[in-house]
Specification:
three-stranded antiparallel β-sheet, about 475 residues, globular, about 35% helix, alpha+beta
Length: about 475
């Protein structure tokens, strides 16, 4: 017997709020006590093997199933209808983590429902399983802690979610992008970077599992609709602190049909103007850090350090400066990585995989001229899946294997250190280079040390140290795949 009225959304919500600050073990103990109060029969919830099946770290969604069954008394099933179907309310349990800066972040995307490649092609958004599942969601956030047993994870936040009108426009676009790719026979090329708030995430513990698609003989990975982790982080932070400083929105109302076209239309008003003119127009100091990012945001009517839509969608602004017809002088940098973290990481858990499979980039191009740099064009871009799965992966693994097998060093007569890592000329998409102002090395078998080791060096698997490293997107790839492709 349920201890709430499942035909009354207010009753469900009030009952859900009692979960706040409880661990999963608390929930279990409460259920056992309740069972004893209403029946003399032994409770199945006292069966350790039964409970262990939910808490097993290998069972995806096990904690969600646990809360459904043990707390809400909902039988676990794979039906497409919402969990509280009488009030059209979906239940979703999702983890968050605390960051070093004491902020919070969603730990992962929120999986909504499976994508049926055969059904989606004849389905409009408002008849889709995606819409049925997201109209109303009871979101329950628990704190993920690395060293804490799963049964002792604690629930902190209960949130009743409904998509805003502005979000719904972009969510509908995301659905259509996924649907169109299936119609085009390209379900095997789906990537989370294709969309903004709703992604098509892989949904199989075995990466070798493939399924058929209707308009191609090429099999595709099973995928599910999901809210991106960036979107979930935005929801979480706004729920926890609704009074926090708000980010400006690019979209001032829901009267637009295509987000990308709308953004580009705002920037295109300033095409053919020099960066100096634009800095002056928007009162941006020429010495300001991130001045080009600030400029792009100002052109979009955003006066905060990011746009709400970009934060929700994990959009990164990148500016490119080059001479017309020539590749940019510089490759494009990404943050420093830790060498020993990289060698311990699998490809699909790596920073590089997540960056290029999940992030959408807004590239804004400036052409070098006698008058300075002139705003030329802007475009949204995400790396094609075939590049991610083939060349990018091979190049990342090339660096990983180089570190594992051991980096070799050669020291010139002038004390310059050369290493055996692959160079930009050896790769198509990605290369690694120093991420410090000054070189720093500690090479034990050569009895050699130079630079500020504590500040500028990173540790290799064998204990030697070399200048901190970061990955860079090759300028040739930027020229061929981003600048020269429409």
């Amino acid at each position: 017997m349920k201890r709430y009225d499942d035909s009354d959304i207010k009753s469900i919500y009030e009952y859900a709020k009692k979960l706040k600050y409880l661990t999963f073990n608390d929930i279990l103990e409460d259920r056992v006590e309740y069972e004893k109060s209403v029946s003399e029969s032994p409770s199945m919830y006292e069966n350790e093997d039964y409970i262990a099946s939910y808490i097993n770290s290998l069972r995806k969604g096990g904690l969600g199933d646990f809360v459904e069954k043990v707390y809400f008394d909902i039988d676990n099933n794979s039906e497409s209808r919402p969990d509280f179907h009488k009030v059209n309310l979906e239940l979703k349990l999702t983890p968050f983590k605390r960051l070093k800066n004491k902020n919070v972040s969603a730990k992962e995307r929120l999986v909504i429902s499976m994508i049926n490649y055969n059904n989606i092609v004849g389905m409009d958004f408002y008849h889709s399983n995606l819409w049925h599942k997201i109209q109303q969601i009871l979101m329950i956030f628990y704190l993920w802690e690395k060293e804490v047993p799963r049964i002792d994870y604690r629930i902190f936040f209960i949130h009743m979610y409904k998509p805003s009108e502005e979000d719904l426009v972009i969510i509908k676009e995301d659905f259509q992008v996924i649907k169109n790719k299936v119609i085009d026979g390209k379900a095997h090329e789906l990537s989370e970077g294709d969309t903004y708030y709703v992604g098509a995430c892989t949904k199989s513990s075995d990466s070798s599992v493939l399924v058929s698609q209707p308009f191609s003989e090429i099999e595709a990975k099973p995928r599910a609709f999901s809210f991106k982790s960036s979107y979930m982080t935005f929801i979480l932070r706004n729920y926890i602190n609704p009074d926090r400083d708000k980010l400006d929105s690019i979209i001032k109302n829901s009267n637009f049909s295509n987000f990308e076209d709308y953004v580009i239309s705002l920037i295109s008003k300033y095409y053919n103007k020099t960066d100096t003119e634009l800095f002056e127009k928007f009162d941006i100091k020429s010495g300001a850090k991130q001045k080009y990012n600030m400029l792009v945001l100002k052109m979009l009517g955003v006066n905060t350090d990011n746009a709400e839509e970009f934060e929700k969608a994990n959009v990164e602004i990148k500016t490119i400066r080059y001479k017309l017809g020539k590749k940019p002088k510089e490759s494009m940098s990404f943050p420093e990585y830790k060498i020993n973290d990289l060698v311990k990481t699998d490809w699909e858990d790596s920073y590089i995989y997540k960056k290029f499979s999940e992030v959408k980039f807004l590239f804004v191009e400036f052409i070098e001229s006698d008058e300075g740099y002139i705003l030329h064009k802007a475009k949204f871009w995400n790396m094609p899946k075939h590049d991610i799965d083939s060349t990018l992966r091979k190049e990342w693994e090339l660096y990983k294997s180089s570190y594992v097998s051991g980096v070799e060093f050669r020291i010139s007569d002038k004390g310059i250190v050369y290493n055996s890592l692959p160079k930009a000329r050896d790769t198509k998409i990605l290369h690694s280079r120093p991420h410090a102002n000054k070189a720093a090395y500690l090479i034990k078998d050569k009895n050699f040390e130079v630079g500020d080791i504590s500040k500028d060096a990173d540790t290799l698997p064998n204990g030697d140290m070399m200048t901190k490293q970061s990955f860079w997107l090759n300028n040739t790839y930027v020229f061929d795949e981003i600048i020269n492709k429409s």
